[in-house]
Every structure is written in structure tokens, then in C-alpha cells.
Amino acid sequence: MLAGKGFDKTYNLSGGIKAWNKELAVGPEDVGLHLFSGGTSAEEAIVTGFGLEAGLRDFYTSMQIRVTNASTKALFGMLADIEVLHQERLVKLYAEMTGAEIALQDFAKKIAEPAMEGGLTTEEYLQLYQTDLESEIEVLGLALAIEAQALDLYSRAAQHSKEHEGFRTVLLQIAEEERGHMARLSEYIDRHQGVR
Amino acid sequence: MKWMQFFTPVSSINWEEAHTLVQQYPIGDVTFLDVRQPKEYEKSHLPGAKLIPLGELEGRLDELDREKPIIIY
Fold it and tell me: If one looks up domain B24-73 in CATH, what number appears?
């Protein structure tokens, strides 16, 4: 249908979703988008993004403490550090948009934390998914699933943020880096299939 | 009779080629278009995929960019 209507760069994914050999996301198309669009200003959306990155970082830091394998520990440490870079980028964008210079710690305490009430703690999240924390493969699998959800949310939010080009660009960049995390986690899982 | 009148050919690509295509274009330029029903999307979808059920596609073409790649599943 599309090819006949002037969409020349259209491709059919052979085998459909069943043949997709990468992580999938779950949930309806609009889930989480209220956090990023609609009546939400770009500044408020940055605060939300900051909260999401804080959650991811908290997850990786918790996992880094729990796992015993040294290389898995290092991997989670590295992923946690990258989430901090994402937070720094969001704070910089916030400063550019509002004209107010603010340090990351101050941003977290004064702006992001008061705005991010409710939600699940990392502990509650782990309980919800009943992850076997003794199995590193299972923990890595959960990390992969969380990254897929983050990538999904950032990408969908970017699609809906066409009026704020700067913010859209940042969302897409972070989405792309979350995609990179997924690739790194997948490679790691492939290499350590025997890890317990 | 010309079959082209009825079926406009569309290239098929596998998941690896789709992944390569995403990397070849600027970030956010490639759209994954999910044409299944919302319930199926809810169960699982490619991260960031846009949902337009097949039955609604014709009326929602303006939501898609003709100049950019679209991978449909």
C-alpha cells in the first residue's frame, strides 16, 4: 500500500516480529508518553528523563553490588557511569533552555527528586519480575529488558516531540545510546552463556 | 495484464539488514511501523515502533515521512 503512494524507501521485515532476533518492548503505544508530551513542557520532560536515568543508574548500581562475577560487576559499573553522562547531558540542556546554571547534584535534589514521587523502587521492580538474583544471566536478561523499555520510551517520546527540536535530538541521542547498551549486554550474554 | 497495477513490489529485509539500515541513517530517521492490532503491539513490539493498524493505514499516511525509510512488520 505504501509503495504505491510515494513511499519509495519501504521495506518489509521478513518473518515479521517473530523473526526479530533482538530485544522487544511491551506495553501500549502511549504508555509513559504523558511524562514527555502533551501538556508537558520541554523543561518538565527533561526532569522526567533525568528521573528515568536515575532509575537506570540505581538499578545498575544495585546489580553491581549484588553480582559476584568480576567482569559482570565491571559491566554494570560501566553502564551506571554512562547513565550519569546522560543525566549530565539533560542538566546541560535544562540550563540552556532555562538560562539557569545548575549543578547535577542540585538539580537532582531541588528539581528532579521532588518531581519524581511514587513509582517502583529497584527492589520492588526486582520483586515484580521475580528475578533470580543468583543467576547472572537472569539479571543481565532483566537489564536488557529494562533497556529495551527505555529505548522504546525515548524513541516514542522523540516521535512526539517535533516542536522542540533540541529536546528531540537529545531524546534520540539517548535512545541510540540505550540501543548501544543493549548491544553490549547482548554480546556479553552471548560470551558468558555459561555464567551463573 | 500488468501485475504492477495490483502489487507494487516492496523489498524484504531480514532483521540483520534492518539493524544495518538503522545504523546507516541519521538517528531517528528509520521508522519501524507496526501494522498489527493494538493488543498485539501491547504484548510485544520492536522498541520505538510506531503503531498504525493496517486497517487505519490509508487514513493516516500523513503521519509518515515519504522521504525516510520505513520498515514494516
Answer: 3.40.250.10
Dist. CA A158–CA A36, nearest whole Å: 9
* This prediction's pTM: 0.66
Tell which CATH architecture fits domain A39-191.
Up-down Bundle (1.20)
Cβ neighbours, 10 Å, residue A53: 23
What letter does residue A29 receive in the DSSP assignment?
T
Would you tell me which residues 123-162 of chain A have a C-beta closer than 8 angstroms to some C-beta of chain B? 148-149, 151-152, 154-156, 158-159
Chain B residue closest to A21 (CA)? B15
C-beta atoms of A11 and B46 within 8 A: no
Strand B31-34's sheet: what is its strand order? B11-13, A10-13, B70-72, B31-34, B50-51
In the structure grid, which three cell numbers stand for residue B37, read together? 492490532
CA distance A166 to A96: 10
> Does this complex have an ipTM over 0.95?
no
Q: Which residues contact A33 (CB under 8 A, 6 or more apart)?
A: A153, A156, A157, A160
Q: What is the pLDDT of residue A33?
A: 65
% of chain A surpassing 90 pLDDT: 2
